[in-house]
């Protein structure tokens, strides 16, 4: 992706006005020159007096010089591009649905096994300075690993995920928020100055609809108030089924509810129907959490471009006309 260019001081673009005037004056001069030559010389005489060379050459140095002026005007406006900078710290709570529907085998070998493996790879890829915790939820929510920089502890906790009845998505979010609040965030540096708050995010994977416990609306309100985005992953296929008391029960994914939760809290809603897609989703989340976007001043590069254009204009003019433009 090509980074978007922004201008820190766009007011300086008024310098383009005199450049535009120069362009108009140049065009007028060329028109007068042609008129004068035709008026005071016959065509055969012109052919003897004027050396044969491509007509476009005489315009190249002027065009390059004018372009250099344009680039310098943009340099004065202090151009900037967005740059991805790795975060040193953050808190991430991996919240996993362990309701009975997660035993569906529409995902190989089953939803829970594939989700566990993908979550482990996700945690392994997070920066070492990140605090990572693990929460599971079914009929209620439970903390399997409190957030810390011990990522191996969080990965091991995923092996303790156990299926149970019910789907308490709201409780899963509220329990995750409580873990973030208990950990706290640094608000001052060692010298006493105010520090940037440590960002936090909940990554919630589920395949169903909230059936027990706190409502989705309560979870949305609490997460919004705390300023913690909830990124959701709707995992599974519309054709998923499980066996309950000898009967086949359909367990389709409720993506709209999860997307609504993500949107309301400032997170991102995802969906995945295979283990490979789930890995891609976690990779995208990892990238968004692990980096922050900062503007980078590229004025020196733009100035260098203007200088190069000016040098080219001078070089062509000396080579073809033995003079500077």
From TrEMBL:
InterPro entries: Aerotolerance_reg_N, UPF0353/GerABKA_families, VWF_A, vWFA_dom_sf. PROSITE patterns: VWFA. Keywords: Cell membrane, Membrane, Transmembrane, Transmembrane helix. It holds the Pfam family BatA. The chain crosses the membrane at residues 12-29, 60-77, 301-321. This is VWA domain-containing protein. Residues 91-285 form the VWFA domain. The keyword Transmembrane helix applies.
